[in-house]
Amino acid sequence: MEIGVTVLPHFPRDTTDRNRTSPIAFTGNKFEFRMLGSAFSIAGPNIALNTAIAEVLRGFADELEGSKDFTTDLASLVRRTFAEHGRIVFNGNNYSGEWVAEAETRGLSNLRTAVDALPLFVSPKVVELYTRHGVFTEQEMHSRYEIRMEAYCKTIHIEALSMIEIVKSSIVPACVDYQRDLAGLLVQKKSLGGTYADSLEVHLLGRMSRLSASLLERLASLEDAVAGTSGRADILDRAVFYRDRVFASMGDLRTVVDELETLVSRKRWPFPVYGEIFYSV
Question: What's the confidence (pLDDT) of residue 171?
Answer without folding.
Answer: 97
